[in-house]
Design brief:
- This protein is mainly α.
- 81% of the residues lie in helices and 0% in strands.
- It contains 13 helices and no strands.
- Helix 1 runs parallel beside helix 3, helix 5 packs across helix 9 and helix 10 runs parallel beside helix 12.
- It is elongated.
Length: 331
């Protein structure tokens, strides 16, 4: 190879590649040209190294290619600089994409819990099977309420957060089985329905709502979100569409890992409410209002902010390559 002649013929493209790689912002056409020039430059470097070995020309071209590669791989991005993007785009988009599954899970839980509660209150023999009269009175008059104040608020909040976050993580991690999420949902619905049935049977339904609603609105919604994420992963395996099952599981699994992070945060908030607000001396209306506001903020974030993020092209995927491509074009 005549290295000088080759360099003269190709140096204009190498120089342009270097200029594009150094630009702070690229439009779509420039980004496409950057990738084309990178591919042709990589082929040039291979030809130079094969024919002439290690040369100054080849070394300079290698540096130019490395600089260009950083523009579309997203390498070297500061982790902390990605935190705003995570909360403004990735997380709300991931939540928004499973909104209908969340609604279905919520409706299922409410229906099962309500039917179970009516079954208990309408059948004295079922109520007796749950315990004798003295034990049930002890539960409705003392144990149900005392549960929220038996331990210091901070440790109790940490305990319920850890427990609920673990349940949410299980729903997402074992969602692919198709069995774990329905099992958790049924267990949860039966538990809520049983408590409601007993409390209403003894005329203490108002106490139940006073102690469940402040934290339960956000807590249960977070569990519904985790369950929906697990079901979404299972569905990706059952019906991957045009993708292979491996691709579908990988793509949806990465996006729904984002949901796990979001659930941990929302459950932390509900844990704080359960530890500090639910057993507090605040008026019942104030405690419930705090719970309603917490749920409203979560739903606004999920539905309004999430809708905007999805319209902007966000998928909720935490992997850097796709996000890196968009950052290259957007600057």
């Amino acid at each position: 190879m005549d290295l000088d002649a080759y360099m003269a013929a190709r140096s204009a493209d190498w120089d342009k590649l270097s200029r594009l790689a150094a630009r702070r912002r690229l439009d779509g056409r420039d980004a496409d040209e950057l990738i084309d020039l990178y591919q042709s430059g990589a082929a040039d470097l291979s030809a130079i190294q094969t024919s002439a070995g290690s040369t100054a020309v080849g070394d300079r071209l290698s540096v130019t290619l490395a600089t260009a590669r950083l523009r579309f791989t997203g390498a070297g991005t500061n982790l902390f600089s990605q935190i705003p993007r995570f909360f403004v785009l990735q997380l709300p988009a991931a939540l928004y994409r499973i909104r209908w599954i969340v609604l279905a899970v919520a409706v299922f839980t409410i229906v099962v819990s309500t039917l179970y509660a009516f079954w208990i209150t309408g059948n004295p023999e079922v109520l007796r099977n749950l315990g004798d009269d003295a034990a049930l009175k002890q539960y409705v008059n003392h144990e149900f309420v005392d549960y929220y104040s038996n331990n210091p608020a901070a440790s109790f909040a940490g305990q319920v957060w850890t427990n609920n976050a673990w349940i949410a993580a299980q729903c997402i991690a074992f969602g692919i089985t198709g069995l774990w999420v329905p099992y958790v949902l049924v267990q949860n619905a039966v538990g809520v329905g049983t408590a409601a049935g007993v409390m209403f049977a003894y005329g203490r339904g108002d106490v139940m709502f006073a102690y469940i609603l402040p934290h339960g609105l956000l807590e249960l919604t977070s569990v519904f979100v985790a369950a929906a994420a697990g079901l979404r992963i299972f569905w990706a395996w059952i019906a991957p569409g045009a993708r292979t099952r491996g691709q579908a599981l990988a793509e949806d699994g990465r996006a729904l890992f984002t949901v796990a992070v979001g659930c941990a945060i929302s459950l932390f908030v509900s844990g704080l409410i359960e530890g500090f607000v639910t057993p507090s001396a605040l008026p019942v209306w104030a405690k419930i209002a705090i719970g309603v506001l917490a749920l409203a903020a979560f739903l606004f974030y999920m539905l309004v902010v999430g809708r905007r993020a999805v319209r902007a092209g966000e998928t909720g995927d935490l992997t850097e390559f796709e996000a890196g491509d968009r950052r290259v074009i957007a600057g």
